[in-house]
Amino acid sequence: MCGTGDGGSSTSSDIGNGGTSSGGDRSTSSGGDRSTSSGGDRSTSSGGDRSTSSGGDRSRSSGGDRSRSSGGDRSTSSGGDRSTSSGGDRSTSSGGDRSTSSGGDRSTSSGGDRSTSSGDEASPNVRPSARPQPSGPFLPVDSCGEKPTVDNGDFISDSDRNRMALTFKCINYYKLVGPEQVMCHSDKTWSKLPICKAPCTIDKRTFYLLDLKKDMFVKEGESQTFLCKETDYWKKPFVADVRCLNGDVTTGSCTCYQLN
After folding, report:
1. Using alpha carbons only, what angle is made at residue 191 by residues 190 and 197, rounded to the nearest 5 degrees?
2. Contacts of 145 (CB under 8 A, 6+ apart)
3. pLDDT 10s per residue in the chain (260 long)?
4. Other CB atoms closer than 10 Å to residue 55's CB: what's the count?
5. The model's pTM
6. How far is 106 from 73, CA to CA, in rounded Å?
7. 17 to each of 32, 39, 51, 188, 237, how far by Cα in Å?
8. N or C of the chain: less Cβ packing under 10 Å?
9. Nearest one of 243, 112, 252 to 91, comparing CA atoms
């Protein structure tokens, strides 16, 4: 150690012990173990183990193990193990293991294992809360207001005001085509309505070969067997099949009815 008198300055050149400055402008350690600055403007450690700045403007560690900034503006670690910023504006880690920011504006990790931010910016790993879903696609039938009507048909009355469907039926001989039940959508519109298709009329004059006492009806899409009148060519029992399809009537030939 060399002294320069009473005032002057004192310099320690021990490479492994480190250097400390509590009020100076800058403290630099290139090979020491620890470099601490509590009020200075800048603290830089390029090869040390730890660099800490609690009130300075900037703390940088490019090869050390840990760089911490609790009140500074920026903390940067490019090769260290951990970079932590609890009140600064930005914490960046490009090669470290962990970068954490609890109150800062931004936390970025390009090569580390973990990057966590609980401050101002949303983390991309946090899933947004689910929006409330509607209770269902249908409402009680009373929610749709006036009941729908079907020609030659009607819905079955029900005293339950909270029923979820109207059940339709057709008048005699009319065939229900389409959905039997109608429901009220959540937008208060009715689902598809059925139709009641008219039967085919089997009148005595047109079908004079049939032994009809009165006009008869065959439902849409169905067939029915009728007796044939006696002629010089056949005697009872002769029968013919009559079919109704899309409002048209087709008749089969009168054939002898065979008893099983």
Report:
1. 110
2. 188
3. 443 444 443 333 333 344 443 444 444 444 444 444 444 444 444 444 444 444 444 444 444 444 444 444 444 444 444 544 444 445 444 444 454 444 444 444 444 455 444 444 444 444 444 443 445 699 999 899 999 999 999 988 765 666 889 999 999 999 999 999 999 999 999 999 999 999 999 999 999 999 999 999 999 999 999 999 888 776 778 899 999 999 999 999 988 876 55
4. 13
5. 0.43
6. 12
7. 6, 21, 14, 81, 126
8. C
9. 112
